[in-house]
Design brief:
Bound molecules: S-adenosyl-L-homocysteine, iron/sulfur cluster
Radius of gyration: 21 Å
Structural class: alpha/beta
Strand order of the largest sheet: 3-4-5-6-9-10-11-12-13-14
Distance between the termini: 44 Å
Number of helices: 10
Length: 351
């Protein structure tokens, strides 16, 4: 029998699995505690389990679906490169903010959405990551850094998290459950290109509707969005905005609208005006993250000048719209590496 990855299961699911092995449910709590409170991933170190139980569990479950193959350090971020069992590469970035750490995780290998400015889109979608592959990014980084606490998790790595809803949802459940990693729901951000049906599904989901929602807008009209993001042909701007206006937001929470600024494409003050008008009266519901395009030799765009970025920002300020741009030097060190390159800077916007 091939082994299952234990990190694929929420506590509820693990209790069911344990039942099949004639293990009492509280044993699942014990194992969960070892994994997610102490980050112990070796049954032999789980000293409150009997030898027989450890043996039984070892036969049935394994821990790491990912193999860590590279770690690149910059002053303000560390990039981890993992390999899946079927030979795909997965990137994860740990960002050192002034007073906390943020982990940027991947949810898919490649992406089917096909945004023309995104390096992850270049190879299309290979497959979804499993829950265990998402959770293992967290576990292995945590094991690497030791005591330091990871405060935030952003789903802004490779892939479209809402196109892998079930696996992402279970990973989020393990992350926020008090018996699991116990992160605050406010500290988790799902970034989506705007799959409307899945945003509606999030709105109905008691766990998913409480994490932060970031939506990649990138264009201010249907036509412009379509050019940059093919998916929006069916997920239209109008319907997206309506869905976001109706999304049941927790108190004092805002939806982030992400906007990749691309030179000569969507970066003029006119675009900023249109963005402000799109937000309209809902200034308390939305904030804007401006992401200067991160160049890539395989992508046909350029980054706007700093002065153009500032002009764009000024217009948003004029309309009283909260917005934020942030640069980071450290990411330059990753210049030559992998696909996540395109998103390294955007993740700096979440602190
Ligand atoms: N698929 C999801 C999450 C991953 S992309 C989404 O699209 O939201 C995370 C963010 O990186 C998105 O806001 C996306 O617009 C942005 N991004 C993609 N390519 C980029 C690039 N070359 N430069 C700057 N930001 C980029
Ligand atoms: Fe996929 Fe997001 Fe890249 Fe678009 S920006 S191709 S949705 S990862």
């Amino acid at each position: 029998m091939t082994k299952e990855f234990i990190t694929d299961y929420t506590l509820g699911e693990l209790k069911e699995k344990f039942k099949e092995l004639n293990l009492e449910p509280y044993r699942a709590n014990q194992v969960f505690r070892w994994i997610y409170k102490k980050f112990v991933t070796d049954f032999d170190q789980m000293t409150d389990l009997s030898k027989e139980h450890r043996k039984l569990l070892k036969q049935r479950f394994a821990f790491h679906p990912l193999e860590k193959i590279e770690k690149v350090e910059a002053p303000d971020a560390t990039k981890y490169l993992f390999k899946t069992l079927d030979g795909h590469l997965v990137e994860t970035v740990l960002i050192k903010e002034r007073d906390h750490l943020t982990l940027c995780v991947s949810s898919q290998i490649g992406c089917a959405v096909g945004c023309t400015f995104c390096a992850t889109a270049l190879d299309g979608l290979k497959r979804n990551l499993t829950t265990a592959e998402i959770i293992d990014q967290y576990i292995q980084v945590k094991q690497d850094i030791g005591e330091e606490r990871i405060r935030n998790v952003v789903f802004m790595g490779m892939g479209e998290p809402l196109a892998n809803y079930e696996n992402v949802r279970k990973a989020v459940e393990i992350m926020v459950s008090p018996e699991g990693i116990d992160l605050s729901k406010r500290r988790i951000t799902i970034s989506t290109s705007g799959i409307i049906a899945q945003i509606k599904r999030m709105a109905q989901d008691p766990i998913m509707r409480e994490v932060n929602l970031a939506v990649s807008l990138n264009g201010v009209t249907q036509k412009e969005r379509e050019k940059l993001m093919p998916l929006t042909k069916t997920n239209t701007l109008e319907e997206l905005m309506e869905t976001l206006r109706n999304f049941p937001l927790p108190k004092y929470r805002r939806i982030t609208l992400e906007y990749v600024l691309i030179k000569g494409v969507n970066d003029s003050p006119k675009h900023a005006e249109a963005l402000a008008k799109l937000i309209g009266k809902d200034k308390k519901r939305f904030k804007v993250n401006l992401i200067p395009f991160n160049p890539d030799p395989n992508l046909p765009y350029e980054r706007p000048s700093l002065s153009d970025i500032m002009k764009f920002q000024k217009v948003l300020w004029k309309y009283g719209i909260s917005n934020f741009v942030r640069f980071s030097k450290g990411v330059e060190i990753f210049g030559a590496c992998g696909q996540l390159r395109a998103r390294r800077e955007s993740i700096y916007f979440y602190s």
